[in-house]
């Protein structure tokens, strides 16, 4: 394989620091450059060549790491105390005897979940989480310091440990303040306040209803609904209630626990609304789309997935010169890019760096799905790691043939469908009349499997748009002239096509899709098409190597698991369907920063592709990003 190294263009390269000047009798100090992966926080604050010294930056990073690990440790102790009865009793006894445990250590399941949530937000460098912890830990440290002036409190060694740990935490918060730079949405405080008010009202009414239904007090008739509502609200707010104040109320422990769990869920929902990342930025504008099409006209043949960057739900980040761009979509706090960056490879770093900076500014997890090997190499130089996701099937039309024993099955299927009277029609979208295109859209919707239009990295997400006139439609009709299936391909440079849409009638003949693909490959020279990209086969190498003689037990087990899940997600069937054409397999990669982010990236990719539907907020609570930014 040729060397995939990419040089940075002069206009897309960050300005280097000034060269050191030698003094008489002293040697010139050697320049020391940090790798780009170590500059992630600096990029998020406006560039790596700021005046902050390396020592102070390293101190801030270590302080931020201490903050995160402290909250993680406290979360573990809180959760462990919830299941380890003796440990929980010791911690509570120490807290209730006018003494103090370290910050956030309360030995409860609810507090453990809350602390764990804080640890996650702090690890993602949320500025709001830093503010909340400083607002809570600062007064707590002052209170603990005042309590240490009392002789009976000062005599306890545990209190000194609490004071030192809390002081160290507050000091680390202050020292690492620059590391917590991820900003949230401006609408988060209003949303959290509305959710807190509305949630408290609804949950308190539900708690009052539970108390009313399960009240076991002998004089329950004397308790009014207002008293039961008051009892439920106190349980929600304080996780406890003074039973002496409510003589007419006696509820089972299960009801009290249920109300406490309800309060924990409400608290987490409010905190999540206050800390959540911005979900998206401005979608593609008409000007962005025009510039992207210009890049595709000049460099579109480099990547078969380049045209899918024109999905209008995506956002785009440009290099300073406008020679390259990264198209992405934010899903569940993940900034998800797909395919290679668009444009000149020498300008790719100029678009990758601001994309990573924007992700870190908003607390998003950067990830790329479906990147090629050359782009993966460039992304890796900017701190991302790579994992092979699968292979893309590419067919060179000049070398495709149905001759030979290896193509016997495909040849027989093609001849069988042709003898049945099926015929194929191939046209550009711009050649299809509007009325006929509307009919094709209607049939495509009828044949869609499910209500959700699936696809993100290898799908355009629309059909029949006038701006996509160079796309190619392949229609197949039976002997009676009825439309039975259709394929749509997007341009891949001037001489290539990439599969976008595949729809067929549920009662169509077997081998119909193979017949259409073969007819397209045969007609490709007349259309000026030299290469065609078909479906993507996930984990292709596992199926291929796992079936070979001498495959190891781990590889065989992995292949068996994928075959099992193929019953629902068509993993193996896509590989088999593509392998019929004897294609060239091009590897595709998923790129990520940390291995711990892979589960979240997988969920975000599944949501983007349409395989998972996440419950969202009501439409009237959705934020209007475009209006707020303008």
From TrEMBL:
Annotated spans, Disordered: 1-28
Pfam families: LPG_synthase_C, tRNA-synt_2_TM
Topology of this chain in the membrane: Multi-pass membrane protein
Transmembrane listed as a keyword: yes
UniProt signal peptide: none
Places the protein is found: Cell membrane
The Lysyl-tRNA synthetase N-terminal transmembrane region domain, residue ranges: 64-273
Keywords: Cell membrane, Membrane, Transmembrane, Transmembrane helix
Transmembrane segments: 63-87, 99-122, 129-148, 160-180, 192-213
Sequence ranges assigned to domain Phosphatidylglycerol lysyltransferase C-terminal in this UniProt record: 293-591
Broad class of where this protein is predominantly found: membrane
Entry-linked PANTHER family: PHOSPHATIDYLGLYCEROL LYSYLTRANSFERASE
Name of the molecule in the record: Phosphatidylglycerol lysyltransferase domain-containing protein
